[in-house]
User: What shape does this take?
Amino acid sequence: MTIIEASGLTKIYKSKTGPVHALAGLDLTVPRGTVKAILGPNGAGKTTVVKILTTLIRPDTGTAIVDGINVLDDPKAVRSIIGVSGQYAAVDENLTGFENLEMVGRLYHLGGAASRRRAQELIDLFELTAAGNRPVKGFSGGMRRRIDLAGALVFNPKILFLDEPTTGLDPRSRIALWGVINKLVDNGTTVLLTTQYLEEADQLADSIAVIDYGKVIAEGTSDELKAQIGGHRVVIALVDAADADTAREVLARYGAGEPQVSSDGRGIDVAVTDGPPALQHVLADLRTAGIQLHDAGMRRPTLDDVFLKLTGHKADMAVGENEDDKMEKVK
Amino acid sequence: MTATATRPAPAPPTWNPLSLWYSDGWTTTKRNLIKIKRTPDMLVFAVIQPIMFVLLFSQVYAGAIAVQGTDYVQFLMAGIFAQTVVFGSTFSGSAMAQDLKDGIIDRFRSLPMSSSAVLVGRTNGDLVLNTISMIIMMATGFLVGWRVNSSVGEFFAGLGLLLLFSYAFSWVMALLGMSVRSPEVINNASFIILFPITFISNAFVPIETLPDPLRIFAELNPVSALVQAARELFGNEGSAPVPDVWTLQNPVLTVLIGVVVLLVVFVPLCIRKFASISSR
Assistant: This one.
């Protein structure tokens, strides 16, 4: 059964260089009790989708239904069943971690005692015990982030929206957060998260929607997407760029697509469907051809590979910038 | 992160909209009171600056500015009270802009809370800060010779009127803060508005000493009415004739009308603006 259904969403922001189509007719459905990842580079429209579904902004056109409620008609009803953690840590600097969470609990109308109890549970859950009673002002970015994430869980929500939840988290916290999310899903929560990392989508999501320029360009399970781009990539680095053509032929022999040659002519990689045997073949053939290598190995496909395959362009068009930084809202 | 997440109780169904509004408003007010406690520069602004103004003006200008029928300190205090509460209302502007910048507005807006609660809490915070300022200023004024020459009832009416005006003005600044979105800009921009409306008035000098264009502005300036009202209610008005302008002849009524107009216009505008803003 579908719990989130968005269709034909468009949103145009005004920017100094002209209008930016943050969303250009985006459709999205999320089945109840599943995890959906929206995968895309900065500026693709990920944050805009989340903001529309969480009632923060209105789309220019299109409809969004969350748990049977039209987001545009009854935002308050939507707010009472969702938990949201945005891209920036939305915490009050002057309150302690505990006070922040207690405040959120009270604003969910849990009442004082339940709010305090829940705040303490979350402080423990996110290992913030030491910092729970100090103002957030002195916290590191990762700790603020965890308080914000805890804020999204104060009221065990029916649907949890996480906009790039692990950005700014250290690897340990990242894995711990994945654990928390998985536990929530086991208890029936639906999760919609955005990420720039294929690995994260892979770990968490039942289904992945790849978006670019405000549209879904591919959708499916992580296996389905990987089948499209090959499971692994074989990567080699040549000692002599003059060997590039020969090496390229070898890689093409075992690859699932066209090998990519780096700009200096010495790095070559190709998508393969079955990694380890392909690597063994490539190495054996290169040895036979007498080609010397600096380095050779396999790597998992990255978002860049997905994008290159699906769109023909790299995913780094706005790395390090947030889509909204460059745009002013039309209204 | 090993503990299991337990489901907390849902909102008690017996809560009616009014008690939810009250509860949300109180929760956000508490947030702002904690902020006052933990932000020393805000307290400095609210405590040290009024003391400084009272001392500076009373000591520097007392000999230079003659006021008919009373001494300058008596005349000055109502002016400083009005200036301070008007300046104090800018906190709402910069705080709303800061909240937007920090992203916490997005948190609030994604919660099923009353849509006016954040603004109610914010303006209540200003009210508390302004009340603290008023008490400090009155004590300082008392030390430099200021006296209330009216009844207890009139004294509290004057105090209430000053705070009421500042509360209404906080909503104006809150709207400005949400529109400008930058705490730095709001601080600079508000001074461009606040210096003229507090200084081109009867706050620090008798209005008849001003050159014509400024005098006309000062006579119609609502801050002049506020100062005049406070002066009369504290019994500090001296014996100079009040300019023959309706607003200054009926200052208390003028301030009350002004407060109602500001609230009726700006509270709905603020709530509407709040419902459509999102961080960055």
Notes: Confidence is low (pLDDT under 50) at residues 1-6 of chain B. Chain B has twelve helices and no strands. The CA atoms of residues 160 and 230 of chain B lie 10 Å apart. Chain B has one domain: 30-274.
